[in-house]
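A reminder from the course coordinator: this example appears on the midterm review sheet, so study it carefully.

Given structure:
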């Protein structure tokens, strides 16, 4: 077995051990997660829309299909937002560029309303397939935002050139905007134009933050522990090499 395969195997074993350790400890050891303002603001956004008697608009952007991690993370958040909206009796309008995402979102929203006994408030027409074209999608969503005048706008997922167009339109309507993406280029636009922005991995950790599932939180703590270990290695190995200690060469390729 080559050095690289040995290192990979050790890392897999270490990762698995960390997840198991934090999962077993989770029942006895309560760890407070860092406050993420954008996620805490979701309930405020739903409440604001309800008070104003306005719908909410939720879209996952043009840049990703159903297989992208950001899209899956956004749909996970949609489940939580839809449950809150259903409990308050508030509409959600979901425009998208992808028919598969549209069907998935339709089932999520419909299921959330059914669980809250609000099935009659769900409208099939609130989940809208707009256009597969980037700026056709942007123009269509802009029109939906302008006509519906939402109380809250959720821009969560993979966004490209349409990011600033949508954020500025939402800003002009006075909607409370919560945005999130892993695109470093579009993050700057969201941070300027939106009220709250989930930066990169904050979007991925949303399910752990909002869920009471201890296993999900344990896996997140394990990832943080492994990152800390990687940071320590990145800092110590170059220093060790400069000092003439080359023991790491027998381990690393």
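Designed residues:
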């Amino acid at each position: 077995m080559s050095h690289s395969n040995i290192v990979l195997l050790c890392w897999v074993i270490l990762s698995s051990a960390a997840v198991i350790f934090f999962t077993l400890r989770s029942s006895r050891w309560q760890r407070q997660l860092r406050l993420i303002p954008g996620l805490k603001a979701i309930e405020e956004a739903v409440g604001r829309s309800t008070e104003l008697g306005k719908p909410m608009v939720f879209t996952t952007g043009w840049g990703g299909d159903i297989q992208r991690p950001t899209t899956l993370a956004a749909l996970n958040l949609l489940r939580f937002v839809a449950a809150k909206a259903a409990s308050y009796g508030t509409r959600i309008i979901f425009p998208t560029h992808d028919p598969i995402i549209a069907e998935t979102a339709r089932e999520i929203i419909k299921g959330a309303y059914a669980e809250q006994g609000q099935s009659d408030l769900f409208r099939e027409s609130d989940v809208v397939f707009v256009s597969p074209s980037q700026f056709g999608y942007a123009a269509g969503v802009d029109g939906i935002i302008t006509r519906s005048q939402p109380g809250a706008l959720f821009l969560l997922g993979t966004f490209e050139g349409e990011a600033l167009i949508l954020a500025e339109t939402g800003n002009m309507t006075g909607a409370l905007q919560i945005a999130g993406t892993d695109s470093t280029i579009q993050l700057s636009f969201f941070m300027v134009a939106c009220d709250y922005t989930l930066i990169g991995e904050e979007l991925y950790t949303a399910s752990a933050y909002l869920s009471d599932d201890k296993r999900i939180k344990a896996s997140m703590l394990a990832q943080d522990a492994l990152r800390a270990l990687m940071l320590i290695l990145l800092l110590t190995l170059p220093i060790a090499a400069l000092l003439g200690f080359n023991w790491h060469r027998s381990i690393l390729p």
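Residues 100 and 143 are 22 Å apart (CA to CA). Residues 37-204 form a domain with the Rossmann fold fold (CATH 3.40.50).
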